[in-house]
Amino acid sequence: MKILRVNMTDLKTTFEDLPDKWKLIGGRGLTAKILSAEVPPETDPLGPKAKLVIAAGPLAGTMAASCGRISVGAKSPLTNGIKEANAGGPAAQKLDKLGIRAVIVEGKPSENKLYLLNISKKGATLESADEYKGLRNYAFVEKLHAKFDAKSTIISIGMVGERQLKSATVGFTDKDGHMSRHAARGGVGAVMASKGLKGIVIDDSGTTPVEPVDKEAFRKTLKEWLEYLPTDIMIVQYSAGGSSCATVGLRSIGSMPVFNFGSDPLDVEKTMGQAIDVINRERGGRMDACMPGCIVKCSHIIHGPDGKYLTASFEYEAVAMIGTNVGINEPDVVAQYDRICDDLGIDVIECGCAISVAASAGKIKMGDQDGVFKLLDEIEKDTEFGRILANGVVSTCKALGVTRIPAVKNQAIPAHDPRVGKGTGVTYHTSPMGADHTAGLIYSGDFMNNEGAIDSSLKEQIFAAAKDVLGYCYFATPLDHKKTMEFLRDLMNARYGLNMSTEDFIKMGRETLRDEIEYNKKSGFHTLNEPDPEFVRTEPVAPFGSVLGVDPNEMAKIWDKLDTIQAV
User: Fold this and answer.
1) How much is the average pLDDT of 207-223?
2) pLDDT tens figures, 409-462
């Protein structure tokens, strides 16, 4: 297994052996290891010493169901700390089949030029991408698929990334070639742009799936898992309605944000994933997988009223953050916003949160559909206010003189209100990732109670990190976390001929968090000390009048139990 190192200063690519100590580590765990070893914490996130790491999981190339998430790691220009954002699509599967666990992009071109990285069985080469400068993501992908193998996976930055704005994403094509999957949080697209890299083409032609050491045990484990998944209620809901399957339920407890994390009533029936699916199928759309081998198929492939493809991966975060949180509950309209965000290469969470603040401040009216289009147009046209919006919600608040800032560690709060899910609120406050629901989202147990929220957050953060190390998809994760870890344990043991325990794999999550925490202590991120936004502690949210009441001093002690708490 190899690491591909891409030096953008010398415009050279080299392959290195993956160190034996990292043989079982992929995804978020590997990005943390590489960044900790190679990027000093004081580094300018967009400077020449910064690096971008793209890492596959250690099971991706086997094509095992839902084990192909791809991680993008960097020092974040948004949070100023270590950052990992992951996405679906077949990129990780193809890299692993090519024998590549990670791609490290370093250095910076001497001139303001853009480049394209081509990866295939023949090796890795760089070529000029200046002809693609300024292209939106979908147009860029169309041109590359006309030039290269149409089955190639494309990694791309859009216009927001090229401008090195702090909410820029790194986009990935899905299995159908749509630029719909994004490593979205933390401005990782701006880091990719700062390297002078417009895109990456991954062509795995001539490769075959990775063969496990114990084929029989591997197939047996996978077969049993695929039989079990459809019996889990959470998986059934994701298959039926995607990540927006529970909008009505989440809104009923106040967790789904409306009107800039306000409390005014708003009907969200039409935003329910199952309702979206009914109308979408009538137009020729469908529920499908983003990567080969997934049986959950939680991705909405959205067709517009004209029956033509519009967007994919139309997820809850889009429906909420650039929809209901701006007072808009029409899925057809929000799907258009989602397509624009994917096309521009901007985080729909950060962008939606910034627009909701702008609406609260009077730049547009809440619920003004055309007003949102106009603000997205300002981002595309690179106006002064468009750049403010594209630099995130904190940037927007500062420009408008707004002191009610829906962000933690400079990163927008996602579509899960921390006043409702108290463990989730603890995650936002303590995670090395900042306000990021994928770092530890809790809707189990007594999740609305302040008591026990710290322990539940810590357990979920460890589990989430372990899962991210192995490249396993959150949307294919049953309610029983122990079963998930036992499945991944058995799969890894069969893949590599090992005899490791469940706790051995949980330790990967603990170690990843430890690496990230230590990095952030030196980076200026201040994970343990920054207070929450005041409104989450003082402004009750309907219908239960919830506030986040967990003691910040106790939250600061969360990592004392990192090595001792039973995670699953």
Assistant:
1) 97
2) 999 999 999 999 999 999 999 999 999 999 999 999 999 999 999 999 999 999
Whether residue 360 is contained in a domain is answered as yes
Return the residue matching tokens 């408008």: 400
180, burial (CB in 10 Å: exposed 0-12, middle 13-18, buried 19+): buried
Q: What is the mean pLDDT of residues 398-406?
A: 97
pLDDT in tens, 247-258: 999 999 999 999
Count of the separate structural domains present in the chain: 2
Residue 437 located in a structural domain:
no
Spatial strand order of the sheet with 70-75 comes to 12-17, 2-7, 100-106, 51-56, 70-75, 82-87
Burial of 172 (0-12, 13-18, 19+ CB in 10 A): buried
CA dist 80 and 520 (Å) reads 8
The DSSP secondary structure of 303-350, one letter per residue, reads E-TTSSEEEE---HHHHHHTTGGGT---HHHHHHHHHHHHHHTB-HHH
Range of the domain at 139: 2-202
Same domain as 290, residue 166: no
Sign of CA dihedral 155, 160, 164, 169: negative
Identify whether residues 377 and 294 lie together within a single domain: yes
Domain boundary among 352, 377, 407: 407
**What does the buried/exposed string (b/e) look like for 67-78 if buried means 16 or more CB atoms within 10 Å of the residue's CB?**
bbbbbbbbbbbb
Distance, in Å, from the CA atom of 174 to the CA atom of 90, rounded to the nearest integer, reads 6
Same domain, 343 and 403: yes
257 and 394 belong to one structural domain: yes
Residue 528 banded pLDDT, cuts 50, 70, 90: very low
CATH of the domain at 380: 1.10.569.10
- Partnered with residue 168 across adjacent β-strands are 346
Amino acid type, 513? L
